[in-house]
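Q: Convert this sequence to structure tokens.
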Amino acid sequence: MSSNIKQLSDVRISVLDLVPILAEKTAEDSFRNALDLARHVEKWGFTRYWMAEHHNMPGIASSATSVLIGHIAGGTSTIRVGSGGIMLPNHAPLVVAEQFGTLETLYPGRIDLGLGRAPGTDQVTAMALRRDLQGAGEDFPDNVAELQSYFAPRDASARVRAVPGEGLDIPIWLLGSSTFSAQLAAMQGLPFAFASHFAPTLLHTALKLYREHFQPSDQLEKPYAMAGINVIAADTDEEAQRLATSLFRSFLNVIRGTAKPMQPPVENMSEYWDASEKYAVQQMLRYTFIGSPETLKKELQAFVEETQIDEIMVASNIYEHTARLRSYEILSEIFEKK
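A:
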């Protein structure tokens, strides 16, 4: 193998935790599991631990994302903690600057601010969040610029200041599932994360656009790209396939529009979906890697070579907490992070 081919050990790995609410469990259980997982992956050498803003979803407990970031950062000591992402159209940029300025002040050098331009919910809930949907996505570049201005060095003459926030070095990431944020991240010289764990279609196009059009900035000298993937790892292929049925059932509920807490694994998915539903779920989950360490090592190496990605953010949506921990432990061994 040529020495210039990127190896798994060259790639950073991180966690995307949707903080799933399990069937027959509560949000309190989810928060407890999230902190336990964060403490384990910190020990196993993962780079960052991100949570995503979703609203009105019975199976996801991360709606108050900045509050949870404080909870996880307060219970860990070295791992970076952040948002994957904050859905900026739902918030005034000043409020986001104040929240993340507070987090960075409490946990210096450990906070990431990933920004998305989708609502993270349905239209009715988006209206409840914003009171007005006018210009929600179109204003994203202006809102990003306004947010950045609040982190600029202290200006006593400014009529509006983020306190705390001004003068703090908080890395801003742009997140996306299309080419829009890839182009904006390139123009602004910001790191870019693609949501290929649920929207795989434009991954390669977005990465190409980002890398070709990247302009260096004060934050970043050269392009830095992250890709989201799903990984269900277990000691055997058979066990991994069984655990993966919880993920399949979650996405099946998405395409059916039947939101539910995360369901336990089942032995046979054919009892739950028809052929067209199976195809739809598989298309959304194209970048999902399921199996034993031996299986995953080959498949993940191929993904890294294909994308030349700098960092992989892994969602392991597994119902059983101990099995979820084991999945991330196997990943740390594959990527030689332990």
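The longest helix spans residues 237-256.
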